[in-house]
Amino acid sequence: MSDTKNILIVGVGGQGTLLASKLLGKCFLEQGYDVKVSEVHGMSQRGGSVVTYVRYGKEVFSPVIDKGEADIIISFEQLEAARWLPYLKKGGLLITNTQKLNPMPVIMGTAEYPERVIDKIKEKGVRVIAVDALDLALQAGSVKATNVVLLGVAAKELGLGEKIWLDIIEKTVPPKTVELNKEAFVKGYNAIS
């Protein structure tokens, strides 16, 4: 049995999945873990589905997470949560934004956005934390901080203290966005009890 933990970060191009995986990876490195972070997969520049893998533990050999192996999925959008759900292990946790972004078939009028996506996932017995991360990011000052809000939620679940994450944010994001990202992180961290 491996001590490696697996986190899948899924979203749509432009939502900040790469920054989220970078922040997660740095935080685990600071805690002394071996960390592997994947490249971005998907059409990140065109609003398509994007996924990054973060694996950490005593010794990690590959950045790839197979179906049924993710301890946590962090989803920036409801349909992406449903799309990547098969990667979540039994007893795993899905952290999702309640935001809906219409995929191209919905935009073109050839399909409809499914109803009750989060409810249907919960009905499968999946542990779900659903947060309106977009609203919290706007409260912090920018829609672009939605990713950091969701990291705040994940950080609380992972049991690592707030201070290490705030230090990593300060060292990683552009200086002009440090305070915004710190505020977004804290809003996410405090969004669940």
Largest sheet: 7 strands, mixed
Order of helices and strands: EHEEEEHEHHEHHHH
> How many whole angstroms does the radius of gyration measure?
16 Å
Mean pLDDT: 90
In CATH terms, the superfamily is: Pyruvate-ferredoxin oxidoreductase, PFOR, domain III
Under the CATH scheme, which architecture would be assigned? 3-Layer(aba) Sandwich
* Cα separation of the termini: 31 Å
The unreliable regions are none
CATH level 1 class label = Alpha Beta
How many individual helices? 8
CATH topology: Pyruvate-ferredoxin Oxidoreductase, domain 3
> Can you tell me the overall shape?
globular
The percent range for strand residues is 15-25%
* Helix percentage range: 25-40%
Going by helix content, strand content and strand pairing, the class is alpha/beta
What this model shows, in words?
The chain is an alpha/beta fold and 193 residues long. The protein has a single domain (5-103, 115-189), classed as Pyruvate-ferredoxin oxidoreductase, PFOR, domain III (Pyruvate-ferredoxin Oxidoreductase, domain 3, 3-Layer(aba) Sandwich). The protein contains eight helices and seven strands. The protein has helices at 17-30, 78-84, 104-107, 117-123, 133-140, 146-158, 162-172, 178-189; strands at 5-12, 34-37, 41-42, 49-57, 70-75, 88-97, 127-131. Strands 1, 2, 3, 4, 5, 6 and 7 form a seven-stranded mixed sheet that branches. Helix 5 crosses helix 6 (146-158) and helix 5 crosses helix 8 (178-189). The chain is globular. The two termini are 31 Å apart.
